[in-house]
Amino acid sequence: MSDPAARPGLIHLRAAGTSLVLDCTGAVLPRVLHWGADLGPLDEAALRTLRAVDASQQVPNGLDVPVPLSLLPEHAAGWLGTPGLTGHRDGEDFSTAFTVRGVETRQEADGPVRHRVTVTADDPVAALALRLELELTVSGLVRQRATVTSTADADRAPYTLDGLLLTLPVPAQATELLDLTGRHCRERSPQRHAFTVGTHLREGRRGRTGTDATLVLVAGEAGFGFRGGEVWGLHTAWSGNHRALAERTNTGHALLGGGELLLAGEVRLGAGESYTSPWVYGAYGRHGLDELTGRFHGYLRARPHHPRRPRPVTLNTWEAVYFRHDLAKLTRLADLAAEVGAERFVLDDGWFRGRRHDRAGLGDWYVDEQVWPEGLHPLVNHVRRLGMEFGLWVEPEMVNPDSDLARRHPEWILATGGRTPPPSRHQQVLNLAIPEAYAYVRDRLDALVREYRLDYLKWDHNRDLVEAGHGPAGGAAVHAQTTAVYRLLDELRSRHPGLEIESCSSGGGRVDLGVLERTDRVWTSDCIDALERQRIQRWTGLLLPPELLGAHVGAPTAHTTGRTHPLDFRAGTAFFGHLGVEWDLTEATAEERAALAEWIAVHKELRDLLHGGEVVTADHPDPARWVHGVVAPDRGRAVYAVVQMATSSQALPGRTRLPGLDPDATYRLTPLRPGHRADGPGTELPWWHGDGPLLTGRVLAEVGVQTPALHPERLVLLQVRRVDGRADG
Known about the structure:
The protein has 729 residues and is an alpha+beta fold.
């Protein structure tokens, strides 16, 4: 479609309350006229009018022509903010000027994507071709990626690609920014500030997503919350180095942008060679963060490979035994896991050769014959006789210097300049871009999965990539490492279609939609202190639905923080995620195990709701009291948690609003057992111990109800069921 008159000009895409209007007229790259609330059906005349009223204006003391802001902003067009494409050929062709050659649109009848737009363009002077792909998903997400190809002759210098940034504009009313930071065991800590003129840049140079990664960068109206205020968010779906930015210029433009962060010389395109960027996702919420979040959740759940069967309740052995592997202890732990209702048993770190501590053994992926003279078969067989699946912890991308593998192949360590990078957690990174290293890891994992018929791999990644170099010259290799890891995951899944894989990386250090194309859940954090987990799970949930968030019930005293919490708080916190147990049940009392079994039983009863409903979060005026829940797709039932995070400045909490229900339906509200054990003043509410009041969804959302006053670090669960004769949820 090379004739400009024959190709689409103004394109209006709509899905799930979102509109995206693209201006593809002329020869310059597409511009976004509107990204936000659904504009309803617009005919060609209305679209032309929209384009006319949105026309760029000349800026005093600026260029003599209007400056367009395209999906890939170009310096050559007069854009003086961050350029979309940066690179050169030995110093030449540093600035591109692409001419659009074709625009194709397609609408899908099924699947997670509703609309696709593909734009082809080239720059004959720089000898580059560009392919832009933009999609609008059924849930209203916008996602885009770009492919750059060198069309130069072989005798011309390669094109060194320094960066590719894809952007989406946001309107003037987006005056506040929210992003996330954090650290090990304190991931997903929110930070908010004004969206002022300049560039707010978040770069990840860790070689993985990072515990401090922003996850979703949000711009919105001042004071936006979970249930109010317009918001626009961006996520870069990449597990290596990455960047996200929010930029406002003194010309009145504002945008969000993202892409891979390329190290010096990482991508050099010879004749005919191409680079494809990660997908960059944009999500819009007319009524706050919950709506934005729902678009990500809806997209993920619509994928063909999204986990469909009930998420197995998992017992992980790490905090129960650490490296102290003993068959008698582990079989007893398996017995108690089955007793409380676990459905999957995962043997964590410590099963392979020389692994009595974290300073040796990584890379030697053979069962330790000294600890396991018969292999893992006695434990695996015992677990399976109990009716549970069996999983195993691995860390395939890493190697301890104290390992047979490192001694045999020191050249397989990612390094540059003839020096070894500083150690982290007593380990180095295995260079999976080396074919022999890749084949070794693939074959060892394949052999383990086959021998033990593994159902699950907990795939860890416990250090940042520092000076990650490759080859004799020590060139930067994070990009190659990331693509090799993706290829390894894809190949293992292809060989073992039923195998589930968890993305773990020092806990929540690799949480992104790139790795989640290849994995079935994330380990949300190494910290399972319930108070910390309330925060971590809330903000990780901006991107991921509950069924993808590993959430475990730990010991009474948290191993990472030393805090002590009652079982109801620990279990009620893990209740909404992919539930698991990480607690030495041999040290739990019979009463504790019975109570845990009750929690697990209720979780299983409600698992279809918890892992298939809409996540809602109330904007409670008291920052010490959090309210969140899950509402069934048909609005027939819901479960809410009322959580006391700290002491309140008021003696009583005031009414609690329960959002997300059908405003015209009538519901019965009751405490949900076992999470109903309220304590403290104000627990003798008239409705708390009776049959429960009947209230409309509008009253519950707009007026709310009095809920018990709670001591800090306690919670209660509420359930609502529709009783007005509509379809039972």
